[in-house]
Design goal:
CATH architecture: Alpha-Beta Complex
Number of domains: 1
Strand content: 25-35%
Order of helices and strands: HEEEEEEEHE
Distance between the termini: 29 Å
Shape: globular
Number of strands: 8
CATH topology: Peptide Deformylase
CATH superfamily: Peptide deformylase
CATH class: Alpha Beta
């Protein structure tokens, strides 16, 4: 396994729509392992494949005190409610902003073994799923802001 380079805005790969995974072969399994290592090295919550320069519909998410979750070709099938959350992104380092996200989401995807799964999520997992699926569609959280003035600089000491 190896940590990969995280692409930073305005890298054009972040704005493209990722392609569906048609075969979960050895190279996809290696990419997933490397994405998990990259996420853990960067101390992030979620990572989409296009954030490491690979335009495939794969995301990994690891909320605190849980194992990493892998979602291939994820789709949100239902959103409920709305809440304000503070959000940041490994591809926009040093900043965060308050945006609106759903209170809960339901998704369908394949796991790394290729089995179709459905997942209902709330709280941080729900937020991370929305954020990472946005990445796969070329959308960054800053796109939800009315102005860049809403971005808050993160204190590196915290």
């Amino acid at each position: 396994m190896a940590a990969l380079k995280i692409r930073v805005n305005p890298d054009p790969v972040l704005r493209g729509k990722a392609k569906r995974v048609t075969s979960i072969d050895r190279s996809v399994q290696r990419l997933i392992d490397n994405m998990i290592e990259t996420l853990q090295t960067a101390s992030g919550v979620g990572l989409a494949a296009n954030q490491v320069g690979i335009p495939l519909r794969i995301i990994v998410i690891q909320v605190p005190d849980e194992d990493a979750l892998v979602f291939i070709n994820p789709e949100i099938v239902e959103k409920k409610g709305e809440r304000l959350v503070m959000e940041g992104c490994l591809s926009i380092p040093g900043y965060h902003a308050e945006i609106k996200r759903a209170e809960s989401v339901k998704i369908k995807a394949k796991n790394r073994e290729g089995k179709l799964i459905r997942k209902k999520a709330q709280d941080l997992l729900s937020q991370a799923l929305e954020h990472e699926i946005d990445h796969l569609n070329g959308v960054l959280y800053i796109d939800y802001l009315d102005s860049e003035d809403q971005l808050l600089k993160v204190d590196p000491e915290k």
